[in-house]
Every structure is written in structure tokens, then in C-alpha cells.
């Protein structure tokens, strides 16, 4: 008789891809072609979010892969959970004016494949990193230029005290202070460590 654990189909860890892997039956088409198709514009909301998460992973020295359903976006070697939020003035679509900088989804319902969604939305990380892409014209916009990004770091307790689902840039600045450059991001995350 199988146990409850044995009844579940567990995925294998993903194999790292180089982009050179070829699709069968698609002559000359490789994984890199799919990446160019799906992530051709790093200005789209999803891609910008993935990019910001990647930057935070790089800052803390994490080599972990992104997990779509995790309750947080990154984790340090010693288990500090980090949530990454992004916003930008410019979007991938036409807009009549620059977007207002707001960071949404600060609370969320945790998801577990066996039990589903939690009943209540909670703050699920120890540290929140707010990533602001600062370009104001499409001609200047370069998502790979890290000097175009401002970063702000707040511990969870600050968000709990505010009890907000979203925050404007002005509120984040009031709580976190001046923006942090990418080169100082890892230090700022360590300094905000709430467990010490």
C-alpha cells in the first residue's frame, strides 16, 4: 500500500540550459530562439520582474533557479527570505503619460500543491527589495544598465506596521531612505536582516 508521500508525482530539479539545446523536428531551432521569442522585450511586466529577481539573486550570490510558485523570490544561503518588487515609468505599450511608480502585491496567499492556497494573505518574506527602473524615455531605456535602477530595502516588520497591499515610491522612500545602487544592494540586504 503506497504512503501518502508515494502517491504524489514529484518533479525532478530542472537541468540548467545553455540555450544551445536543439528542438527535435525543428531544424536549426534552439532554446535560445524560444528565449528570444518569450523574453524579447525586458520592458514587459513579467520580464522586468524576472530580471529584477535575477539581479537580486546575483547580488546575494544565489545560483538557485526561479520557482514560479514559491512564496518569496530569493533566499540567502542561511535562509533569509527575500521578496522582489518592481516598477517603472515606461511600459511595453502606448501610454499617455509616465506610469506612477507603485509596488503591488506586498501580501499574498501562500500556495502548497497538497493543500492549495492559504486562507489569508500574509507578508511571506523577511526582506522586501523594491526595484525601480528609472528611465523616462524609450530611447534611453536600457534594462541591462544597472545605473538605471534604484533599489530600496525594507524588513517585513516595517510592511506589517503599514499593513498595505501596495506602496507608492514616495512611501517606500519615506520608509527606506535614499535609493541604493546595485553595488550596495547585498550590503543593504544584510544590514536589514531582521533575525539578528
Structure description:
The structure is a single chain. The protein has helices at about 30-40, 45-60, 155-160, 170-175, 185-190, and strands at about 75, 80-90, 100-105, 110, 115, 125-135, 150-155, 165-170. Helices cover about 25% and strands about 15% of the residues. The mean pLDDT is about 95. It has about 200 residues and is an alpha+beta fold. A hairpin with a 5-residue loop joins strand 1 and strand 2 (about 80-90). The protein is globular.
Brief characterization of the structure:
23% of the residues lie in helices and 16% in strands. It contains five helices and eight strands. A four-stranded mixed β-sheet has the order 1-2-6-7, with helices on both faces. Strands 3-8 form a two-stranded antiparallel ribbon. A two-stranded antiparallel sheet has the order 4-5.
What is the average per-residue confidence, as pLDDT, rounded to a whole number?
A: 93
What is the general shape? Answer: globular
- End-to-end Cα distance, whole Å, is 46 Å
Low-pLDDT windows of residues: none
Q: How large, in whole angstroms, is the Cα Rg?
A: 19 Å
Structural classification: alpha+beta
Instruction: Please work out how many helical segments DSSP would assign.
Output: 5
Give, in spatial order, the strands making up the sheet with the most strands: 1-2-6-7
Q: How big a fraction of the residues is strand?
A: 15-25%
Task: Kindly state the number of beta strands.
Answer: 8
N to C succession of SSEs = HHEEEEEEEHEHH
Largest sheet: 4 strands, mixed
Helix content: 10-25%
Amino acid at each position: 500500500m503506497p504512503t501518502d508521500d508515494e502517491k504524489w508525482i514529484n518533479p525532478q530539479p530542472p537541468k540548467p540550459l545553455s540555450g544551445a539545446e536543439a528542438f527535435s523536428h525543428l531544424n536549426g531551432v534552439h532554446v535560445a530562439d524560444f528565449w528570444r521569442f518569450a523574453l524579447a522585450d525586458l520592458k514587459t511586466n513579467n520580464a522586468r520582474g524576472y530580471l529584477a529577481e535575477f539581479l537580486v539573486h546575483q547580488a546575494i550570490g544565489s545560483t538557485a533557479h526561479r520557482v514560479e510558485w514559491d512564496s518569496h523570490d530569493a533566499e540567502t544561503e542561511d535562509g533569509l527570505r527575500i521578496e522582489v518588487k518592481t516598477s517603472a515609468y515606461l511600459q511595453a505599450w502606448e501610454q499617455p503619460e509616465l506610469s506612477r511608480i507603485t509596488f503591488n502585491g506586498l501580501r499574498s496567499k501562500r500556495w502548497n500543491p497538497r493543500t492549495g492556497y492559504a486562507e489569508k494573505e500574509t507578508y511571506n518574506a523577511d526582506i522586501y527589495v523594491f526595484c525601480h527602473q528609472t528611465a523616462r524615455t524609450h530611447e534611453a531605456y536600457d534594462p541591462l544598465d544597472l545605473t538605471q535602477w534604484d533599489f530600496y530595502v525594507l524588513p517585513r516588520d516595517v510592511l506589517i506596521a503599514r499593513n498595505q497591499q501596495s506602496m507608492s515610491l514616495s512611501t517606500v522612500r519615506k520608509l527606506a531612505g535614499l535609493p541604493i545602487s546595485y553595488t550596495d544592494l547585498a550590503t543593504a540586504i544584510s544590514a536589514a536582516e531582521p533575525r539578528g
